[in-house]
Automatic annotation (TrEMBL):
The lineage of its organism: Bacteria, Bacillati, Cyanobacteriota, Cyanophyceae, Leptolyngbyales. The keyword DNA-binding applies. This is Transcriptional regulator, AraC family. Residues 199-297 form the HTH araC/xylS-type domain. SUPFAM superfamilies: Homeodomain-like (SSF46689). InterPro entries: AraC_XylS_family_regulators (IPR050204), Homeodomain-like_sf (IPR009057), HTH_AraC (IPR018060), HTH_AraC-typ_CS (IPR018062).
Length: 298
């Protein structure tokens, strides 16, 4: 099976991607707050992609109905049936060719090599890591993450960059653990964040609740990779960083709702919600009533 080194290429997934003739972009994360990853919902006509080399890693989730494609391996095209729900994994710098004779619909995830490597930097030597190409892989975790991010994107990314970064990090670590020769340092379930580091992170979160908090900033504050930070944070508090931030925003909104002179729309922005509708949806889900009703009863 073909292999390609992950490397440390610095090309950004926000740069324009080379489009194919007849390709239709149905949905794109181009204007989302996500960093290091991008997601597109694409519709292709019959097409012949010859000897293409991408600068980033690509995951393609087959949608719709089964399709017959031809993949070039060792200089020869071989026919393969692509099943909806299955995933193709193409490493950066990998030279590949593929063609098909009918329309096709896919979810396409792109990950920067640097983003993938930073996800688990404590136990990774980037010069020795190889991501292995797979075609038609049945991987429930990759499928679920891509579909969840599609729903988030369709909703306008209301959960912010922290959510997207966390999902992208989980995906990157899964790739490193499952589709490389990497053998990372085992995670000890009893590990937790040191108290002083946890205190620093929680203080930072409180001071920046009105902003779009980045997972990378929280991990850097703790002095570790995003993956290990997420794991240790949850071991320490029982919730993920994204869940904790959401709960703190809800609690702050409760306090501000007691100030009758503040408009609910302004409270939403002061607590880091995208808008009043975003606050109302999550407030009702977590508190069991709307902000307006809560204010009346307070």
């Amino acid at each position: 099976m073909s292999q390609s080194q992950i490397g440390t290429a610095s090309q950004s997934v926000n740069q324009p991607r080379a489009k194919h003739s007849g390709e239709v972009v149905l949905l794109s994360s181009g204007k989302s707050p996500w960093e290091g990853i991008s997601l597109e919902h694409l519709h292709f006509p019959a097409i012949d992609i010859s000897n293409m080399t991408a600068m980033s890693h690509h995951l393609t989730l087959q949608l719709g109905t089964p399709k017959s494609v031809e993949l070039k391996v060792n200089g020869k095209f071989n026919r393969q049936q692509m099943i909806p729900g299955n995933v193709c994994i193409t490493p950066a710098q990998h030279l590949h060719a593929i063609r098909w004779q009918s329309e096709m619909e896919v979810l396409s995830m792109t990950l920067e090599p640097s983003f993938v490597m930073k996800a688990l930097h404590e136990s990774v030597n980037p010069d020795r890591v190889e991501l292995i190409m797979h075609r038609g892989q049945n991987d429930p975790l990759i499928r679920e993450i891509l579909l969840v991010l599609k729903v988030e994107l369709e909703a306008g990314c209301p959960s912010g960059r922290l959510y997207g970064e966390a999902m992208g990090t989980a995906l990157a670590v899964h790739l490193l653990k499952t589709y490389t020769k990497l053998q990372p340092t085992p995670f000890q379930s009893e590990d937790k964040l040191p108290h002083y580091k946890l205190a620093q992170v929680l203080e930072y979160i409180q001071a920046h609740l009105d902003q779009d908090i980045r997972l990378a900033d929280l991990a850097a504050l703790a002095g570790m990779s995003k993956y290990y930070f997420c794991r240790l944070f949850k071991q320490s508090l029982g919730v993920t960083p994204h869940q904790y931030v959401l709960l703190q925003r809800i609690e702050r909104s409760k306090q501000l709702l007691k100030q009758k002179d503040l408009a609910i729309a302004n409270i939403a922005l002061m607590c880091g919600f995208k808008n009043q509708s975003h606050l109302t949806t999550l407030f009702r889900k977590n508190v069991g009533t709307t902000p307006k009703r809560f204010r009346t009863l307070a």
